[in-house]
Amino acid sequence: MTEVTAAPATAPVSPAATARLLAEAARAVDAPDLVLAVSRNGVRTVHTGGSAEPGPLPRELMAYELGSASKPYAGLLLARLVAQGRVRYEDRAADLLAPGFPVHPAVRRITLRHLLTHTSGLPGLPADFYPQAVPRWSTDPYGGYPADRVVRAFLRARPRHRPGTRWRYSNFAVSVLGHTLAAATGTPWEVLLHQQVLAPLGLDATRVRPGPDGTDAVGHRRDGTPVPALDTGGFTAAGAVRATPLDLLTFLEAHTGGAAGSPTDSSLAAALTEVTRPVLRRGLRHAHTHTLTWFQHPTPYGPVLFHAGATLGQQAFLGFRPGTGLAVAATATRRVHRADTFVATAYGVLTETPYAVEQ
After folding, report:
1. How far is CA 32 from CA 84, 107, 154, 295, in A?
2. Are 58 and 331 contacting, i.e. CB atoms less than 8 angstroms apart?
3. Which helix (H) or strand (E) holds 47?
4. How far is CA 67 from CA 72, 159, 249, 312, 315, in A?
5. pLDDT of residue 105
6. In whole angstroms, what is the distance from residue 307 CA to residue 320 CA?
7. Handedness of CA 54, 58, 62, 68 (dihedral sign)
8. How far apart are CA 187 and CA 200, in angstroms?
9. Is pLDDT above 90 for 269?
10. What is the pLDDT of residue 4?
11. CA distance 283 to 287
């Protein structure tokens, strides 16, 4: 295992203390490859380890599948397009995707905001997704369901609940958002994401497709056998992002309001502010708070915003404390299971007391 630290001339925290914290946390996670990365006001500490032999590239330079942790990228893209005046949160998705096409009244009322915030009334996945996915559930469940099929499933959907009335996590909805933004701008999703988010933030090691041989981390099942790279089919916006842990820190640092400062582009700065603003509550006594794209939890030291994701053989966690300069990114190459400690461990690093005391 290795600890790699990079600090500017004025480092506000002890890299050694952070390295010890990460090393201790890493002992709780069993995975072939593990990366725990922390940034505090630009001071970066990265701990790498795992049960597998290191590959040709250092683990922190490998690209990992983010799964559902891709959704904050979709959220930031939407927020920037809104800031630029190209779309509005209240635009109706069906009108942008298929103007004049007859759809169910509930589908007609679904807005871009509903799709992103999981309040559209759509199910987690289309009903006809499962027959083609179940036979290959552990190898390639999404690859046989392309973009045009996602759009058709949306246009013929019959939501159970009126849009905006209930929260239900939906890969289907966020995928529809991606196709809607592509239609509204006349730009393919992958190109749009690169133009509006990845390039402006300098995320050169972030992509939505597998990279050159030897540059992508290999996922594993619980028994340690490798799994093929994820093909998201038509669900790209919901889970296709791949990134190195260092790029993940760059993405999070843009959100923290720490020493790195705000982007000079006004629409990007406005979007980064917008995605950290709470917009809804759900659950018993409305205990769960969400921004446009992040889960938000209270702590004694202020709110934390985070999102986790998993694919067939990898996991990822992204989290930060707004206004403090603190960000945590973590990746692992083992499929999630009931007793898995990965997310809890990464979340613990984000909420660990030593960071709060130093504010």
Report:
1. 43, 44, 38, 28
2. no
3. strand 43-49
4. 11, 25, 17, 9, 7
5. 96
6. 10
7. positive
8. 17
9. yes
10. 46
11. 6
Strand order across the 206-207 sheet? 64-65, 242-243, 206-207
Distance, CA of 190 to CA of 51 (rounded, Å)? 34
For residue 63, the 8-state DSSP code is B
Contact 73, 38 (CB under 8 A): no
How large a percentage of the chain has pLDDT more than 70?
93
Q: Would you say 167 and 282 are in contact if contact means Cβ atoms under 8 Å apart? A: yes
Of 1-15, 245-259, 302-316, the least confident:
1-15
E strands, 168-303, in order: 206-207, 242-243, 280-282, 288-290, 295-297
Residue 152 corresponds to which amino acid? R
**Closest alpha carbon to 154 in 127, 185, 136:** 127
Query: Rg (Cα) of the chain, in Å, rounded?
Result: 20
